[in-house]
Write a structure and sequence with these properties.
By secondary structure, the chain is of the alpha/beta class. The protein has one domain (about 5-140): Rossmann fold. The protein is built from five helices and six strands. Helix 3 links the parallel strand 5 and strand 6 (about 105). It starts with 5 loop residues before the first strand and ends with a helix.
Length: about 140
């Protein structure tokens, strides 16, 4: 089984405890924040320069609001660790990574071979996203 966390970053994992998005503004020394479904990731945009970790909670498999939070943060220039936590299933990994997640802490450990296959699925993509992969139409037509 995979460790509690899968990372795609060269830096050290952020071990700071994450505070809630609601209390983040009051926590002047906090460098980690946790976004729950329903939290507006745009509230963090003025603070991106001091945030080292954003955890985005997926309390249920079918709740996709965390994907939008990731895109909002990455498109605004957030370069810190973006970690998907909670009910993260192996078949979500590829899409989560495309939205900008670079760390995963699933509730249920994953088989390493399954996780690697998930990340290798769909080598060609159709939409540009924050993962830097060129869409297939751009590869075909320059």
């Amino acid at each position: 089984m995979v460790e509690a966390q899968i990372r795609f970053r060269d830096d050290e994992p952020v071990g700071d405890p994450a505070v809630t998005a609601d209390s983040f503004g009051d926590q002047t020394n906090a460098s980690a924040v946790r976004i729950e479904p329903g939290d507006d990731a745009r509230a963090l945009l003025p603070h991106l320069d001091r945030i080292r970790l954003v955890e985005v909670n997926f309390p249920g498999f079918g709740d996709g609001r965390g994907y939008s939070a990731a895109r909002i943060l990455r498109e605004a220039g957030y370069a810190g660790e973006l970690r998907a936590v909670g009910d993260v299933a192996v078949d979500q990994l590829n899409a989560l990574r495309r939205c900008g997640f670079d760390a995963f802490a699933p509730e249920v450990p994953m088989n390493p071979a399954d996780a690697e296959r998930a990340f290798a699925t769909w080598p060609d993509v159709y939409q540009p996203t924050t993962d830097g992969r060129a869409p297939i139409w751009k590869l075909r037509h320059g």
